[in-house]
Amino acid sequence: MPQTIIVLDFGSQYTQVIARRIREANVYSKVLPFNTKIGDIKRLRPVGIVLSGGPASVLAKGSPKPKAEIFSLGIPILGICYGLQLMGKMLGGEVKNSNHREYGRGKLKVLKKGLLFKDLPTQLTVWNSHGDCLVKMPKGFKALAQTENSNFASIEDSTRKFYGLQFHPEVEHSEKGNEIIRNFLVTICKCKCDWDMEDFTQSAIDEIKNKVGNKKVILGLSGGVDSSVAAALIHRAIGDQLTCIFVDNGLLRLNERDQVKKLFKNHIPGKLKVALAGSLFLKKLKGVTDPEKKRKIIGKTFIEVFDKEVKKLGDVDFLAQGTLYPDVIESVPIAGNPASLIKSHHNVGGLPKKMKLSLLEPLRELFKDEVRNLGRALGLTENVLMRHPFPGPGLGVRVVGSINSNNLRVLREADAIFIDELHSSGWYHKLWQAFCVFLPVRSVGVMGDERTYENVISLRAVTSSDAMTADWAELPDKLLRKVSNRIINEVKGANRVVYDISSKPPSTIEWE
Ligand code: XMP
After folding, report:
1. 277 Cα to the center of ligand 1, angstroms
2. Which whole-number Å values give the CA distances from 151 to 83, 110, 141, 317, in the listed order?
3. Does residue 388 have an active-site annotation?
4. What is the C-alpha separation between 312 and 110, in angstroms, rounded?
5. pLDDT (tens digit, 9 = 90+) per residue, 444-473?
6. Ligand 1 centroid – CA 510 distance (Å)
7. What lines the ligand 1 site, CB under 6 Å?
8. Fewer CB near the last or first residue (10 Å), C or N of the chain?
9. CA 169 to mean position of chain CA atoms
10. Ligand 1 atom nearest to 390, measured from its CA
11. Separation of alpha carbons 339 and 72, rounded Å
């Protein structure tokens, strides 16, 4: 078993970021609900425990608390924000609701470096987000640092190895936050920092084997990074108990079905079922122009087709999905119902409920770049791992207005040219996403001596780190000129190309 740090989750939006920072320091970390039984904690033989932040107040009745025995295990503990207040209160200190809510950047003054601030500056900018404040430390503690609003912004009991930080070292805006966490891991918990993605792969495989036993699993493969990595990992664990289903909804990019089949053949030597449903989707979408109606029809039809394929397979117990941490919506665990701690965002909306399947989501603790690293450890190639995101409804939300096979053809051909030129110019990997959009607008042109009256293609290329905000990319004029020339000359049905210079917000990345 690798050296393990347990992160007890009190509902902070940053809990998984803490776990991620620990993994970045090459230490294995496991997030567990705040009320995990002491026996279950001991069984993992952790070398350290982190108490996360959380939205509750330790002063409120019924606020989430860990089992008190956690403080008698002889294991180093780091309380962050709510975790510090909790430790302070449970060990006999005093917490008060402060008049000054501390939110955002603040100045931290280090009074005594101890082990937590070893080799770090004495003035740091840190990120705060708290209303309550520790006003009296428990016996045995000393203050390590203060901010304007808090005399006990960091505390330590070096004998029992208990540490607290009122601010959030895990967020990027906290200066030297990674180093503070590293000090906890290395100097205090004596971590060897020898864990890596290969180790994660092995423990994820063991976990999948334990959970699935000899039952059957299906997975909706889209060919994107997340579902491909999930498929490769699950196949490594349970082999042919996994069947992947790829639905060709007729809204895919040029040659996409063949590319997915090839990817599968080369990297995931398992069972793949391909459902050809393009004409069904097109029939249902005929004449529909409203974007929300289109999305609903595409989602519903997907479920119908997928369900039909699954029924053909007979007994299936698990639905596997490549859900990532950012897809996971956390709910607040105040009412003491740990089962409702984390709710899943279903990539394939409505499927698990309808089909009464258990979910298998082996990537749900990971961030996108970690999934890419996992994919590398599993031998997937860069062209699979570094692909731009592609939305579930596919070209259905990129043909603006009504969808028919000709509009789709024009869009497919134009899009393939744009992506091809981005690859050859070295721009593809500098972008979050790039694609063409088919506009239901016709304009006049002249080709040779002939008048043309054809559709408009808009190019969209954005930079972003998480798709929450995005900026249009400043592609070189020469590149834009080449793409435009090629589309107008090579794609029958398009005689004008425009470049979309809208950022998100207020626009969105996709047009529909
Ligand atoms: P917007 O257009 O909202 O898109 O700025 C943000 C990111 O999400 C992708 N997207 C989707 N992905 N199913 C998906 O799996 C969808 O229905 C969907 N709609 C948008 C979009 O491509 C961008 O990366």
Report:
1. 22
2. 16, 11, 13, 54
3. no
4. 65
5. 999 888 999 999 999 999 998 777 788 999
6. 7
7. 389, 391-393, 433, 467, 504, 508-510
8. N
9. 20
10. 22
11. 26
